[in-house]
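Technical annex, item 7. During the second reporting period the consortium partners agreed on a shared format for inverse folding records so that results from different sites could be compared directly. Each record opens with the tokenized structure and is followed by the designed sequence. A conforming record, contributed by the partner at site C, is shown below for reference.
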């Protein structure tokens, strides 16, 4: 297929240029009714392609024309039997993957480092998660991903399982060995679903870890908007038909997605795919080069750590790999928190990072960065290092904490049970009724259905006191929803 084609975008442009009179939504009518301030800032043209389902530009709910063609081009390049454009991010994709594949009460083997949208999908469907035990590497300066041996041991221990759900890469760019996992799972008749929110680019450069689709995964969702050229909210879902019921998945997406999808978001997916297919190697090669340049310099700054690919491979005994475009900078050696460094980078140097947690700041280097941006980051960190004299490393505070074996009810049963709220400090022994996360990374510390233990209370309190943004407690961060006894 000719990957330089952009059928949806072309049809949108030609419809906009035809200047037809519109008696349909959106009500701003090609921008004529939009607020003047908005139009002055962004210019008039963007409104002319803010379209709705019309014959010329097809319908996402039932694609037969240019959206179908654009999705087919995406499927061809990613090696899928069917690809879908998503307008509610990977959050919507995770929910659709679960609702389309798992029945109420059905067990699913899943890693505990999932995004909260996976848990909300479980609440929708009522499936029963079985979490794979996680063995944290104590020598790693940030959370690695699950090891192959642990995933395979869990598959062995649960021969009744038909679905395995993984997150790869994790927020820090650490991937699972999907090739080995897919092979082993498929031999047992298990299908593998992957949240690849942070990996839409992996498919397009040989020096990046394997992408989910290249590894033979059955269903993978990616946030095109996070790393490559999609606009915010624009994601893609890729499916292989051997173990996935494609008509059912299409129905579920029709149920869960809006009937008024943004054409601007969908066009950005069409163009992002074209850009990666035609120039991906060059653009990602430059991003990798910039990230490598910066990593070397950051590692030279006294007190900072920034693990490289070889170190991650060694720490995980070759079971994990690293996407080098993610720079996770460990600031413990400065005796400060990642939140403090992130704030100073922002206020004093005009640098905004992707995420901070207690021990780290996380920097995403992408196809949009230039050498000057990375030079500015290195300059700022060097400047901060002169006042933060290296101190001996304090013990790490993991930003993804997984409590094993605390699930007492399915997330759905807990969510739909009568609730009450209690001060966190006196909730020990009760069952959580809501998802509690630190955002980002948005990985739940506590799920509906899990028991709140003293360790959970202590951990949540520690995050709260460190200034983390908590999601799932009340506005004061003091009260927690529990299942009424
Ligand atoms: C691993 C993971 N999955 C899913 C999501 C949600 O993606 P989106 O923001 O595209 O809905 C995120 C967001 O941070 C994430 O980190």
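Designed sequence (site C submission):
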């Amino acid at each position: 297929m000719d990957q330089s084609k952009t059928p949806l975008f072309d049809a949108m442009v030609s419809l906009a240029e035809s200047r037809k009179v519109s008696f349909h939504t959106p009500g701003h009518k090609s921008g004529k009714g939009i607020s003047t301030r908005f139009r002055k800032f962004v210019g008039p043209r963007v409104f002319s392609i803010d379209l709705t389902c019309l014959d010329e530009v097809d319908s996402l709910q039932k694609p037969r024309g240019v959206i179908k063609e654009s999705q087919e081009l995406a499927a061809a390049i990613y090696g899928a039997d069917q690809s879908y454009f998503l307008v509610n991010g990977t959050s919507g994709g995770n929910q659709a993957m679960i609702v389309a594949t798992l029945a109420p009460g059905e067990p699913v083997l899943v890693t505990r480092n999932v995004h909260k949208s996976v848990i909300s999908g479980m609440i929708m469907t009522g499936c029963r998660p079985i979490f794979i035990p996680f063995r944290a590497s104590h020598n790693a300066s940030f959370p690695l991903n699950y090891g192959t041996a642990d995933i395979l041991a869990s598959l062995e221990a649960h021969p009744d399982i038909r679905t395995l759900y993984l997150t790869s890469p994790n927020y820090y760019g650490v991937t699972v060995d999907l090739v080995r996992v897919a092979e082993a799972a498929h031999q047992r008749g298990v299908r593998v679903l992957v949240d690849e929110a942070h990996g839409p680019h992996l498919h397009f450069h040989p020096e990046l870890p394997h992408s989910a689709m290249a590894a033979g995964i059955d269903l993978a969702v990616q946030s095109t908007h996070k790393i490559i050229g999609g606009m915010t909210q624009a994601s893609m879902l890729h499916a292989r038909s051997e173990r996935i019921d494609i008509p059912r998945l299409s129905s579920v997406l029709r149920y869960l997605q809006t009937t008024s999808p943004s054409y601007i978001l969908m066009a950005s997916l069409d163009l992002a795919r074209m850009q990666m297919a035609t120039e991906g190697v060059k653009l990602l090669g430059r991003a990798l080069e910039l990230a490598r340049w910066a990593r070397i310099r950051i590692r030279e700054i006294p007190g900072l750590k920034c693990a490289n690919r070889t170190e991650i491979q060694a720490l995980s005994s070759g079971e994990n790999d690293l996407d080098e475009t993610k720079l996770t900078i460990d600031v413990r050696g400065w005796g400060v928190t990642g939140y403090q460094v992130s704030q100073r980078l922002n206020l004093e140097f005009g640098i905004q990072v992707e995420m901070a947690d207690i021990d780290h700041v996380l920097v995403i280097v992408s196809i949009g960065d230039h050498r000057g941006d990375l030079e500015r980051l290195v300059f700022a960190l060097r400047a901060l290092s002169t006042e933060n004299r290296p101190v001996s490393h304090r013990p790490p505070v993991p930003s993804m904490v997984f409590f094993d074996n605390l699930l007492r009810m399915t997330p759905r049963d807990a969510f739909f049970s009568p609730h009450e709220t209690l001060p966190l400090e006196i909730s020990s022994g009760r069952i959580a009724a809501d998802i509690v996360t630190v955002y980002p990374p948005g990985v739940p510390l506590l799920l509906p259905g899990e028991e709140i233990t003293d360790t959970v209370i202590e951990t949540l309190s520690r995050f709260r006191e460190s200034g983390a943004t908590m999601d799932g407690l009340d506005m004061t961060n003091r009260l927690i929803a529990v299942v009424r006894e």
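The chain has three domains: 7-275, 282-387, 411-483. The pocket of pyridoxal-5'-phosphate is lined by residues 89-91, 115, 117, 167, 171, 195, 197, 223, 235, 440-442 (CB under 6 Å). All partners now use this format for quarterly exchanges.
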